[in-house]
Specification:
There is one protein chain. The chain has about 260 residues and is α+β, with helices and mostly antiparallel strands. The chain folds into two domains: about 5-85, OB fold (Dihydrolipoamide Acetyltransferase, E2P); about 90-180 and about 220-255, no CATH class. The chain is built from seven helices and eight strands, in the order H-E-E-E-E-E-H-H-H-H-E-E-E-H-H. It has helices at about 5, 90-95, 95-110, 120-145, 155-175, 220-230, 240-255, and strands at about 10-25, 30-35, 40-45, 65-70, 80-85, 195-200, 205, 215-220. Strands 1-2-3-5-4 form a five-stranded mixed β-barrel. A three-stranded antiparallel beta sheet has the order 7-6-8. Helix 3 (about 95-110) packs antiparallel against helix 4, helix 3 packs parallel to helix 5 (about 155-175) and helix 5 (about 155-175) packs parallel to helix 7 (about 240-255). It is globular, with a radius of gyration of 21 Å. It starts with a helix and ends in a 6-residue tail after the last helix. The protein binds zinc ion. The site of zinc ion has 7 residues, from loops. Zinc ion (ZN) binds near residues 186, 187, 189 and 210.
């Protein structure tokens, strides 16, 4: 039997996956990056994907996909052999606000997830967010249809932002980059419960005045809401969601891996 064939044997990977990016390659192909349940981030070549839309029917972000990838031990790029939708998220993809929130979460994910390493916590958080955004869009559409009222009231955007903010804080923690909000990151002195504190995202959390804290002022209410959001939907973050999203964005820019495109 051919030893060289054994040595170069491909392995067929079948896994649930999210599409995180796609770029043209040559005339006909695509480079498609997936965040998979079983091996984390993996880049693949989808041969002829640009020639024939039918070749791979489901090369779309946001939906939960089922993919088959041939992985060679000597090549960094796998070869995509099949992609189909395992669970469609039609509500999510029907709205700009939920699409934008989901897109931002996927950009954070690209910063957070290393190549070829299963990340069950990141997998869980991102899919939970996408499912919640999907349900939110469906529920809001139902309300609006009943009211025959398509007027944009802004509260939907806030609910979307709140979900994204809470997920962002948890993605940071799951990546080992969680913000320290209970005590000063330098001297470990606990934060005063009823007064303002200073968040220095680059330092990794609160820095007290004695340690020369510089950065954004957090009110006591904000700090407690941020801490509270470690679990659940983060409803207490509601009034501060946009601020939290900015902090999370900053933190991922500081810590994140370079290949976030
Ligand atoms: Zn200190």
């Amino acid at each position: 039997m051919g030893h060289s064939a054994t040595r170069l044997a491909k392995t067929r990977l079948e896994t649930s996956a999210l599409l995180v990016s796609r770029h043209p390659l040559g005339e006909a192909d695509l480079i498609v990056r997936f965040f998979t349940e079983t091996v984390g981030m993996v880049a693949t070549v989808a041969r002829n994907a640009r020639r024939s839309a039918k070749r791979f029917g489901a090369l779309e972000p946001m939906h939960l996909l089922q993919v088959e990838i041939d992985c060679s031990p000597v090549r960094e790029l796998g070869t995509l052999t099949e992609a189909r939708i395992e669970r469609a998220r039609i509500g999510l993809t029907s709205r700009l606000a939920t699409m934008e929130a989901a897109g931002q979460a996927l950009r954070w994910l690209r910063r957070a997830a290393p190549n070829r390493s299963a990340e069950p916590q990141l997998w869980y958080e991102v899919n939970m967010l996408l499912d919640r955004l999907d349900h939110l869009a469906v529920a809001q559409d139902a309300v609006h249809d009943r009211a025959h009222d398509r007027v944009h009231d802004g509260s939907q955007d806030n609910e979307t932002a709140t979900l994204l903010a809470a997920t962002g804080l948890r993605l940071l923690s799951a990546s080992g980059w969680g913000l320290e909000l209970e005590c000063c990151v330098r001297c470990r002195k606990p934060c005063p419960e009823r007064s303002r504190s200073i968040l220095d995202v680059a330092a990794g959390g609160i820095v007290c005045r004695d340690c020369g804290g510089r950065g954004d002022v957090l009110s006591a209410a904000e700090r407690l809401a941020f801490l509270d959001s470690a679990a659940g939907t983060g409803t207490s973050l509601n009034p501060f969601a946009r601020r939290v999203i900015d902090f999370v964005e900053q933190a991922f820019e500081i810590h994140g891996r370079g290949d976030a495109t």
